[in-house]
Amino acid sequence: MTAKDIGRLLENCPSSSLLAQIGAQARRSGSRAAVVGGFVRDLLLGTASQDIDIVVEGSAVVLARQLSGLLQGRLVKASPFGTALLALGDQKIDFAAARTEYYAHPGALPVVTPASIPQDLFRRDFTVNALAVELLGDDGFGPLLDPCGGVGDLGNRRLRILHAGSFQDDPTRIFRALRLANRLKFTLDTATEELLREAIKSQGWRNISSARLMRELRLMFDEPDWVSACRDLERYGLFAPLFGPALTEDWAGKLEKVDPAVEFFTGQGLAVDRIGLAGLCLKAYFLLPARLARQIRPAVERLPDTRRELAGADRPHKIFAALAQIPPPVLAYLWIICQNGEEQRPIRRYVEELRHVKPGLSAAQIAAQSGSGPQVKMLYNKLLTAKLDGRLPTLEDEREFIQRLAAESTHGGL
Ligand code: ATP
């Protein structure tokens, strides 16, 4: 990869003029800026990434602030640790001051020292991410900086860490490795894989804060090939400690059904998302927002009863009665655990048809016919039951039905 080649790739990418403006502003303010990491990696792989990471020799926060004024962007975050996040419409650009990181002991927070852009590349996670190109404003783009052999590893589709202590220093890299290897369809280099296994065995990952661990898991679950990443978690012995009880069941088979279920339920306007549904399949309630987890737990625990009710539901109103109180994520989970199409059929019918059924008469109209009072709700429910079973096709049928019931009620029939 010559300087000309990388320059041409950058000139032809959709973010070219933005990168040129970042470079020009860095030069004007006496700093240096380079595009780094995943953006360069993906560019070399022939895919344009939306996410841009900029490393700055000088103040990253000042540069981000200047660009936010110049490009009418929004400075979303600016931290005292020399990082900033700039939003330009939908595009997000991360800025970080070039630095070296030193870990006093594995898992410690790194001691950070300002450094040059080439030095900064040595604190990165994988060789294919330790790539940068300086942004030279009007002079275009600098040569590709690749001090760790990232281009060679890209060619061999191989993920390699930069030094033997990398996973111990920062165990989130274990999750990053599995996520990235799955996304890029790369294999772990032999020594890297060995070190990853050792790092998992040494349990250092248990010291990752729950917020960071959740962030890593969320990112993993956001990947197109997330089920395969879960299989890797199992293969490397991380799955059981993370999701313990689910292992005895057919968890992978369930996870394979999550995306089709999400597609069906969201297509019907019901709020079901992948990570929440995966959380239910794995009995990993921590993957769901705490309030939602609390709300839906009783419905999950009742599912064996619900399945029995559904199996005996010989009329539509019984299907409705079995499912009407079940929150959408649990309904989707029920759909997943059903053994076959036959068992799923009433759920589909409920979602597509029955839950939309409403009597033509309102409660006020029923009250006008029957007199107000507690019987209105009862009459409404009976009306709905009959309507669900298809016994009241017209509004006139509904009026007659209410009239009859109201009359029976006055004669003590209700
Ligand atoms: P993605 O395509 O998933 O966004 P990315 O490579 O751009 O991948 P980011 O999480 O945006 O990943 O991080 C940007 C860059 O920062 C990475 O390319 C890598 O060089 C570096 N980086 C991120 N996390 C770590 C880490 N835990 N240890 C070392 N370097 C990291």
Q: Describe it for me?
A:
- This protein has 23 helices and eleven strands.
- The strands form three sheets. A seven-stranded mixed beta sheet has the order 3-4-5-2-1-8-9. A two-stranded antiparallel sheet has the order 6-7.
- The chain is of the alpha+beta class.
- Helix 8 (172-184) runs parallel beside helix 10, helix 14 (258-267) crosses helix 19 and helix 17 packs antiparallel against helix 18.
- The chain has four domains: 3-156, Beta Polymerase, domain 2 (2-Layer Sandwich); 166-238, Orthogonal Bundle (Hydrophobic Seed Protein); 274-356, no CATH class; 363-410, no CATH class.
- The termini are far apart.
- The radius of gyration is 29 Å and the shape is elongated.
- Bound molecules: adenosine-5'-triphosphate (ATP).
What is the structure about, briefly put?
53% of the residues lie in helices and 12% in strands. With 414 residues, it is an alpha+beta fold.
